[in-house]
Amino acid sequence: MALIKCPECGKEYSDSAISCPNCGYTAGNQKNLKKMGQGIKEGMKGLNTTASPKKKSVCVKLSIIPFVAIVMGIIGGNLNNDALIAICGLLAICSGACNFYVGNFKKGLLYTLTCGGFLVGAVMDLVHLKVTGTFKDANGYPVIY
Ligand SMILES: [Zn+2]
Predict the structure, then answer these.
(1) Residue 53 has what DSSP assignment?
(2) Could you tell me if residue 136 is left (phi over 0), alpha (psi between -120 and 50 degrees) or otherwise beta?
């Protein structure tokens, strides 16, 4: 257990405390925020961003797997009906799993039932993840790390 200095009022308090007992400041205690499944507040490239503690790489991998399968099918020239059904299944599972991972259970279930929101939803998630950085977890924090 260590003492950390409160950035708000300057008083020292235990790092196992969720907030400063003196003024109630919470955002500086990253370790406990992570533990609580909330966002990690961090000065990223000078921007004061609150990010999701969920790993971006996990979401990207889950989102990309079905597209790799589609490309492999096209290159291999064996994109018959069986392969398409298999890819749809993979898309459903992976896009659903990505949303389950970040805690969006309703969206995850919807994606599992609709093959990644009829592909469009899965593509949008990937764009939000890789391009715009606006893919959010269940708490509304962007998954950017
Ligand atoms: Zn304080």
Answers:
(1) S
(2) beta
Q: Are 81 and 46 in contact (CB under 8 A)?
A: no
pLDDT digits (tens, 9 = 90+) for 110-126: 999 998 888 889 989 99
How many angstroms is it from 23 CA to the middle of ligand 1?
4
Q: Write the secondary structure of 115-130 as one string of H (helix), E (strand) and C (coil).
A: HHHHCHHHHHHHHHHH
**What's the pLDDT tens digit per position in 73-83?**
888 877 788 88
pLDDT at 17: 78
User: Cα of 80 to ligand 1 centre, how many Å?
Assistant: 63
DSSP 119: T
Give strand pairing partners of 44. 47
For residue 51, give every residue at least 6 positions away whose Cβ sits within 8 Å of its Cβ, in sequence order, or none: 39, 40, 41, 42, 44, 141, 142, 143, 144, 145
Cα–Cα distance, 60 to 115 (Å, whole number): 17
Q: Which residues are near ligand 1, the ion (C-beta closer than 5 Å)? A: 6, 8-9, 20, 22-23, 25
Q: Which amino acid is at 17?
A: A
pTM of the model: 0.64
